[in-house]
Design brief:
222 residues, Nucleotidyltransferase, domain 5, five-stranded mixed β-sheet, alpha/beta, 5 strands
Length: 222
């Protein structure tokens, strides 16, 4: 901003704030405000959610120099687990979650699926890591959608697992790749690592990047 007088004139700034102002604002910003911001973005872009897809990924939380950590043998094993649910057609993130890992994706998914009920999806897509009877039951009974989840092995128990083969459409399931594309774009555009020091701020940083992606995607689609 110091070298761009056009920006300062547009913002009507006679004195530039200190560079730590944004950092302090981020620390004070609550998760609720970030969630409200995402809701506002989604309200600005009406979504007709025919297909929804869910998936999770890890975000490294090592702010130390990688070379130093390697030679000292102090590579960190913990990371932030980020779980998202998207509208397949627009690739907008409908809801998200972030917690310190390692954690299984199934620990996030039930709450995430329930949040999708508002959008009334016809199908919910997920990879075989989500192939459990409680997850399929939640999709079919609570959301009123059809699950499109590939089986880990041949189903021997569970009403919805046993019947999954009759409602599984490969062409529909193939569109699950869109959620992986979203994860790739977030990591490429907004960095796949977190540089906050505390777990609380790392979780918040992860959530904020999800919201920033929605702003970026909203500009492209709408």
């Amino acid at each position: 901003m110091e070298v761009s007088d056009k920006i300062t004139k547009f913002l009507k700034l006679t004195k530039l704030p200190h560079y730590t102002t944004i950092q302090k604002f981020f620390v004070r910003m609550s998760d609720t405000k970030i969630k409200d911001l995402n809701k506002l973005i989604l309200l600005m872009h009406p979504i007709n959610c025919e297909l929804a897809a869910i998936d999770g990924t890890g975000r490294t939380s090592d702010y130390a120099d990688h070379y130093y950590a390697k030679i000292r043998g102090k590579c960190r094993k913990s990371y932030i687990k980020n779980h998202i649910a998207i509208d397949v057609d627009t690739r907008m993130i409908l809801n998200y979650a972030a917690k310190k890992g390692p954690k299984s994706d199934t620990q996030f998914v039930i709450a995430s699926i329930r949040q999708l009920k508002t959008y009334k999806p016809h199908y919910i897509l997920a990879d075989r890591a989500y192939d459990t009877e409680p997850i399929r039951k939640c999709i079919n009974e609570e959301v009123g959608a059809f699950d499109q989840i590939s089986l880990k092995t041949r189903a021997k128990t569970g009403h919805y697992r046993l019947n999954s083969a009759t409602i599984f459409w490969h062409d529909v399931y193939a569109r699950r790749m869109n959620v992986e594309s979203v994860i790739y774009v977030i990591k490429r555009r907004f960095n796949g690592g977190n540089y906050s020091r505390s777990t609380t701020l790392q979780n918040k940083e992860t959530k904020l990047k999800d919201v920033l992606y929605n702003i970026y995607r909203g500009i492209q689609v709408f």
